Amino acid sequence: MRALIVLLLLLTTGCAHHVSLDAPDVVPVQADYQIGAGDVVNINVWRNPEVSLSVPVRPDGKITTPLVEDLQAAGKTATALARDIENALSKYIQQPVVTVIVTSFVGPYTQQIRVIGQAARPQALAYRQGMSLMDVLIAVGGITDFAAGNKASIIRTVEGKRQSVAVRLKDLLRDGDISANVAMLPGDILVIPEGWF
Asked: What whole-number distance in Å separates Cα of residue 150 and Cα of residue 177?
């Protein structure tokens, strides 16, 4: 009986110290990767090296290859794009067999994390399951000497509404305060303002 009381006390005091990371632990992620503008796709047409090549997906989401002009690629899986290319090539090549491999990942805008402001290398990153703020900072090379790291924020859309989540980059990077490491969600925008001296 005494052990049960101690266990209940531990459980109730443990609940009082719960830390929220401002994001759910489980993020729904699409099972298959969808190609996005800025991705690079390697197109291999079996036994036809003259039409096999790597091409970037244009900002309008389309690709152009020999014999196939302006084919929509963004929003499709690699397999779906391969089937579309096979259909387009079937006018010129008898029973083409196409394989598409995505070699450079950015993904659709809804699956990107964009970093703007005083990052060492501001850029758009492809979201990966379980990605944290620290992962994003590593990918962009940290923050500049002019950054106001503890005034940074994440702009996040939740249920159709934009919200701003304050983050403490200086505490995380310079002081090693791991409690400042929050979970990232697809579509997040990390804004790192410049500090005033």
From this structure: 12
